[in-house]
Amino acid sequence: MNDDLESELRNALRRKQPSRDLMPAIPRPARNWWKLAAAAAAVAVVAPIGGGVYRAHEQRKAKDQLVFALRLTAVKLQRTRAQMQTIQMEKFQ
Amino acid sequence: MRLMCVFFFLAALCSGQMLDLKSLDRFASKASDTVDVHLEGPMLKMAAGFLSGDKADEAQVKKIVEGLTGVYVKSFEFAKSGEFTDADLDGIRSQLKPPVWSRIVSVKSQKDGESSEVYMRATGKDQVGGLAVIALDAKELTVVQVLGSIRLSDLGALSAIPGIPDVRMGPRQKEENK
After folding, report:
1. What is the ipTM of this complex?
2. Segments forming the whole domain that contains residue B105
3. Closest Cα to residue B12, out of B87, B104, B121?
């Protein structure tokens, strides 16, 4: 009886190789650190460039809107003046 | 922060500065072309900073922009006439009242169906603190407001310079971009 129990205990406590399913769940930081470092470096380089490009695009868009708005105002004022001149000329005729 | 923004927005409205043009937004769905420009504060400074002093048109704009605090445009172009009435602009006109705003010109042409109204905001002796224009014709509705110190002679010179950038939004613009 005691022998059986001892044998069962030995079996249960015997060192075993982990199953293949379990392998991916175990992190291996030492092997992939350079990939993480490369990704972080890429983000650090690309993010400011992307931000700069976006900011330049927004600036150009705002500039175009500003030029357009002021030109439109000028055109409308000019048209108003032309309308007034036309009406005055019609009164004289 | 949000409360502060609301406070400043209401303060600007109450002081008779910025016009509330939201009543015009309903025309965007009917319009074939829409222009909506809202530039003020840091955005206006950013746009001005991007203007080149070497190009003739941009140098002219740069000169005008120096004294400005806000530029707002809503313009709608329709495929057919009758999409709006003169009364649709009454909400805007009610904001352009004395003593802050004075209507200096109102022209209506029955023949062409065009009308223009020009309002000025006087801030002191011989100083114009803002300008508002309501321009209508059968198929187009435009409201412009320019705030800040402005000289009309500078603005007039601007219309003679070619090369106006196209910032329209709408079906026609989308087709042109394809």
Report:
1. 0.75
2. 19-177
3. B121
